[in-house]
Amino acid sequence: MSLFFPSLLTSPLERGCFIFLLLMTYSLLGWCGEMVYCSIGQRRLCEKRGFLNGPLCPIYGHGALVVLLVLDGGCENPVLTFLLGALLTSLVEYVTSYAMEKLFHMRWWDYSRYRFHLNGRVCLLNSTLFGLASVFLCHAANPPITARISRLFAAGAGVPLALALSLLYGADIVISVRSAIRIGDRLAKLHAIHRELAEKLDALRAEQQRAAEAQRQRLEEAVSAARQSAGERAAQACQTVQARLEPLADLGDEFALRLEAARNEAQQKLHALYQRQDFFERRLLRSFPALRSPRHGDALAKWREYLAHWKK
User: Which of 6, 29, 171, 208 stands the most exposed, by the fewest C-beta atoms within 10 Å?
Assistant: First the structure.
């Protein structure tokens, strides 16, 4: 097919800005497609999708650019465009999933519930849809979109527009990456609080069991002594047994108070952490309902429960 760059773009700056505007265009269109697809599946308007805060899904933009650049605008044969496009976009999705998991220690999407998936990162259904989208991209959508963007450069607006959008795009990336890192840090702190509480409760229960066992032994000694002297000192024996029973009851009350105090302390710490989350963190969690943390899965589940309760 035709060359990737329009003939009027000769300088590296113009070509770089042209690529960036294509990235923005297809990231926007990809975000729109994702919103429509997810809303149809949920039969309602779904939560905002995507890693960024703006109406962009960069993975679609980068996938489109890879297809256009590698195939130089597309193959002459649409079937070949479909096959290569499905392969290239699936590779982009797999690498993106792997890189984001290694960077943030979280799995942002998981296709394990689909048939014919590869490590839950890509699946046959999505690869097929990406292949069809690649055919539409190369043979229908890209030529008119390229023509419209070319007219921006012909009018002298292409480079300024690209530079202005790059500032907004860069700021959004910084904010979103910061939010993802803070989610990871917050999950680690939540997990530490839950672990600390579990350790305290285990220690208190073990201490309670040891103390109760010691009291039982004393009680058994008292009962044994009472039996030996039942004929001579019955009243005194009853008093001795009662004296052994009273500390045992007090012991149970003491440990119940200590257990409740440990739980209240943990709840206060958890509530403080939940309250410090900002809008961008909550938005990321809502945008990725399948997000999971291999390290702190329980903490993430409890955080989602808190958000669901807070939303009500």
Answer: 171
